[in-house]
Amino acid sequence: MAELVLNHVYKDYKLENKSKFTALTDINLSFEKGELVSIIGESGSGKSTLMNLIGGLDSDYTGEIKIDGADLKSFKDKQLDDYRKKKIGFVFQSFNLIPHLSVIDNVTIALTLSNVKESVKRERAMELLTKLGLKDHAKKKPTQLSGGQKQRVAIARALINNPDIILADEPTGALDSETTLQILDILKSIADNENKLVIMVTHSEKVAKISSRIVEISDGKVIHDEQKSDYIKSEKKEKLLACYDIESKDLNNSKKKKEGHLSIFSALKLSFQNMWASKTKNILMAVGVSISLIALILMLSLGSGLTGYIDSLAQDYSNPNYVTISKSGYDRDGNELEDNGNFMVPRMFEDEEIEEVASDINSYLQTEGSDFQIITSGEGQNLTYGFSCPTIGIGTSTISTIPAVDEETELPEEVKTENIMYAYTTPPYYTEDNLIAGSMSGDGEIMLSSAVIDFLGYKTAEEMFANDNKPTVQLYINMTYDGVRIEINKTVQISGIVDVSVFSGMMVMYLDYDFLDACVMEAQENVDVEPTGLSPSLLFIETDGKNTTDMINYYIDTYRRDLSGSIEEQLASMFSEMMSTFSIALAIISGISLFVALIMILVVLYMSVSERTKEIGVLKSIGARKKDIKMIFSTESLLIGLLSGIVGILLTLIIGAILIGVFTALIGFAPLSMNWYYFAIALLISIVISVIAGVYPASKAAKLDPVESLRRE
Fold it and tell me: d(Cα 582, Cα 587) in Å, to the nearest integer?
C-alpha cells in the first residue's frame, strides 16, 4: 500500500470580493516510503499549498488525502494534531527556529509537547545533533549559528519524533552552494537509508537533480510526474534514527500523567524561557503592575494602622472596669440637637439627670439578672464625676512661667505664656502607668503633656522632676460658665507629665476634679454669683467586671440615644467612621489601579502573541494542540502575575520600612499595620488579574491559522 495517496484534490481560496481562486485542481498522486520527491513549479503554482495540505496544516479542501488508508479530511482536530506530531516532520526554508530556545530545546520541542521524560528526550536529541555535527552547539541559541547549522537543527527537529514523512519547503533556498550539498546529502540519506518519504518543494535544479522523483505543478495542476530511472541511492551510512527503536520502548513504558500531552511543568518551563528572553520588558511590566499592588498593600496597612491606633487611644482613655458616660448630640427621642457633632462645647449633667441615668441603668441591669447597682452617693458610691473639653470652646486657658530675677541684670525675666488646647479632669482609673514622669496631681497641682518640657526649657521630663522638684506655673482660665464670665487665676505646681501619645505636641492639661470644682466656686464668688460649683460633663461608673461594663455600654448604645461614651470615645468613634469611609475610598482607588494593571498585562500579552505569531505556527506544525498553545500563554500570564506580586511585595517592604522610619521620626509612631495576609492577598490578586488578562491573548493565539502564522514575517 502507498504511504500517501491524493485523489481528486481541489483547493479554493475565498477572496475579499467574495470570489474564489482555485489553487489546486484535480491533484492525483501517490507516494511510497523511501522516495525522495521534488515538487517543482513557478511561484504561485500551488506547491506550498499542496505541502500544507499534505502536512495537515490546512484541511479545507475537497477530494481525498489518505495516509495509511485514512482520509485526512475525516480527522478531528486532535487527530490532526497527532498526525503532525507523529507522522510529519517539517523543514522550512527560513528554518523557523524559536529564537529564545537553545538548539537542544528547539530539537526537543516536539517531544516536550508529547510530555516525554526529560532524560529520554535529551538523550535522543544529543544523538541526532551528534550525527548531524552539532554536538558542540547544543546549548547555543539559533542566532549564534550559521545558515547551514540552523537548517541541520531544523532537520533534527523534524526527525526527533521519528516521523514517516519529511516535508521540506525550499530546504536549501537560504544556503550557499557548499552547504546546499551537505543538506541535500542528509535529506537523501534519510530517504535512502531510513526508508522515509521525503517531499521537497523547490525551485532549485540542484535539488530536483538529486531526487528520485520529480512532480511539476503549474497553475494548480500536475503537468509532469517523472520517476527517475537513473536515480542512484546513497551509500549505506550509519542511520540517523538507529537509536529510536530502543528509545521507543522506553517511551511506551514510561509512566506519564498525561502521555502525549504538554504537561503544566513543561508549559511553565517554556513560558519562563520566553519571559527570560524578554526579561527587560517583563521586569518593567512587573514593576508597573507592582505599583498597583504597593498601593493596595500600603492602603490596607494604613487603614488598619490608623484604625488600630484610634482603637488603642480609645482604650487608653477607658478601663474594662469603668463605664464612661457623656451626653450625645441627640435627645432621648432621637431628635438631633443643634450642636450635634460639636465637641468643642461640653454638655453638662444636672443632678436630676444623673439620678435618672443611674435609675434607668439599674432597672435594665435588674431585668438582665445582674446584681450590680449604681450608687450615686454615700457608702459604696461607685459613680464619680469628670469634666473634659477643648478650652478654646469654653474660653481661654493658658499657663505662664513665674518670673524670676535675672542674676546678671537683676531684672525680672520675661514671662512666657502658652495656650492650653484641651483640659481634662483626671479619670478615676488613671494611675502612675499613664505618666511619663512625675506623680499624679492633687490639690493645687496639674499634669501636662510633654509639650511643657520644651516650654519650660528642660531637655527631658526626668530633668523637670529632678530632686523632687515640681515646676511652678501660673494657670489662667477665662470662661463663660452657666451664662456668666468667670476667671480662674491660680499659681499651681506641675506634678507630672501625662502620656497623650500623638497629641504630645499640644498643651493638654489634667487636673483633679475637686480642685477644678473649688476653682470654679471661688471664681463665681468673685463675680457675686451664687457658687454652684462645677457640673460634670462625664460620669464614671466603676463596675464589678467587664461583663457588667459591656451590659451597661450595650444599654446606652441600644436604648439611650441621648447618651454616649466620653468625648474621647466619641472622637474615636467619629475617627473610626472616617477611617471606614477612607478605607472604602482607598479600596476604590486600588480597584481602579488594579484594573489598569489588568489592561496593561492584557495589552503586553496581546502584543506578545503578535510578536510570536510565527513561533505559534511552528508549534502547530509539530503537533501543538490549541490547548497546548493556550496553556503556554496562560502559564506565562500566571508567571507574570507571580513576578509582579513578588516585585510588589519586595518594593512594599522597602517603601514600608522607609515610611515607618519617617513617620516614627516625625510623629512618634507609624500608622502602618503591615499584616502578612495583606501580602498574601496582593500576591493572589496579582496572579488572578494576570491570569484573567491572559485569557483573551491565549485564546487568540490558540485560534491562529498555522499556514498564515508561518507566513508572518
Answer: 9
The number of beta carbons lying within 10 Å of the beta carbon of residue 459 is 9
Q: Are residues 367 and 509 in the same domain?
A: no
Residue whose grid cell is 443632678: 351
Task: Give pLDDT tens digits for 569-599.
Answer: 655 666 667 767 777 777 787 788 888 888 8
List strands edge to edge, sheet with 62-67. 20-31, 4-14, 62-67, 70-71
**Is 526 part of a structural domain of the chain?**
yes
DSSP 468-492: G---EEEEEEEEEETTEEEEEEEEE
Tell me if residue 339 falls in helix, strand or coil.
coil
Distances (CA, A) of 44 to 13, 18, 214, 536, 713: 13, 20, 18, 102, 18
- pLDDT, residue 140, reads 92
Q: Are residues 161 and 119 in the same domain?
A: yes
**Joined grid coordinates for residue 379:** 457608702
Q: Judge if 230 and 292 occupy the same domain.
A: no
Domain-located, residue 674: yes
pLDDT digits over 124-137, tens only? 889 888 888 888 99
pLDDT tens for residues 160-216? 888 999 999 888 877 888 888 888 888 888 888 888 899 999 887 888 888 999 999
pTM for this one? Answer: 0.67
- Is residue 248 pLDDT above 50, yes or no? no
Phi/psi of residue 649, nearest 5 degrees: -65, -45
In our burial notation (b when 16+ CB lie closer than 10 A, e otherwise), range 154-165 reads bbbbbbbbbbbb
Residues paired with residue 478 on neighbouring β-strands, in sequence order? 396, 487
233 touches 192 (CB < 8 A): yes
User: Which amino acid type is present at position 323?
Assistant: V
Domain residues for 361?
318-386+539-565
Q: Which three cell numbers stand for residue 660?
A: 515607618
Q: How far apart are CA 159 and CA 122, in angstroms?
A: 14
CATH code, 127: 3.40.50.300
Round to whole Å and give the CA distance between 211 and 590.
67
Looking from the CA of 497 toward its CB, the CA atoms found within 13 Å total: 24
